[in-house]
Please model this.
Amino acid sequence: MTVEMGAPEADDAAAMKRAQAGDDLAFEEIIARHSGRLYGLALYLSGQASDAEDILQETLLGAYEALHSFESRSSVKTWLSRILVRQAARHHRSQKVRRKAQPVSLSEESQAMLEGSTAGPTADREAVRMDVMDVLQSLSAEHREIIVLRDLNGLSYQQISEVLGVPAGTVESRIFRARQELKTLLKDYLE
Amino acid sequence: MGCPLFEKTSAYFDGEMAEADSGAFKAHLDGCAECSGELARLRRMVNFLSVAKVPDVARARNVFRARLNTQRVSRFATVLTAIAAMVMLVSGISLALRGSGGGGSSSWQQVAVNAQAETPQEDPMIMAFLRDKP
Model:
């Protein structure tokens, strides 16, 4: 299940035109509409709440400064996602600390989900969420990025292509490889 | 990975295959245990990931706008304030949604958990903001 959030693209486009004409309320409207989704994206890419806040702030500032470069060739959602992914990559490089892939130990609830059992009403979904965070941080940066965009943020291949600046065919093959890495991490629980 | 179509399973799962190809691949699945098994694994993996879907703090929008109406000073200062306020609000809501049960922990795990709460209207912090709405 993926989730699409935010108002229709037409609302974004109209607000963007007003923002480009100098209407700051319109820019505020845009960032208010997208900040929650962008924060989630930053959190899953960085794995740290404090990093996510920095990335989100840099993204919003960058978007404001680049308002006039927006040419409606992509949606506002895609445009903001692209800025954020770049900021996250820059932030990751600046850390100069490569996180090592570590074996993932999953909760019983996660194991049940991966074995195909239906999570009951009393299932500890918080434990599963923490497991997902652990698994994401064990992926390579490139694969984490594309899994977050596709499976947690619900972007289409075309939107991911625009966000990452790579051909759609590359998106397809990268998602395949990312899922293979994910499958390797989870192999103890998938068979 | 013996099946030459194995790599296509991912795009099929995502509904990103052309309609004609998708129909052919669906027929292929009936006779290919490797691809049908992969499809089942993909479903389980993505179902697992979806528990951590991106948090929805859409309700923050109205709250955020109300706060800005009282903070307007100058053009760029307003935008900077708006950005800072939004970042604080989004991360603050994430922390506050589940109350203070985290024992003061500010780990990403706790924030990630808190960010997922689906009943922000019950949060006292948000209710306080909503009461301030003009």
Observations:
- Helices of chain B lie at 8-13, 19-31, 33-50, 60-69, 75-96, 108-114, 124-132.
- Residues 75-96 of chain B form the longest helix (22 residues).
- Chain B touches chain A through 50 residues (CB under 8 Å).
- Chain B has seven helices and no strands.
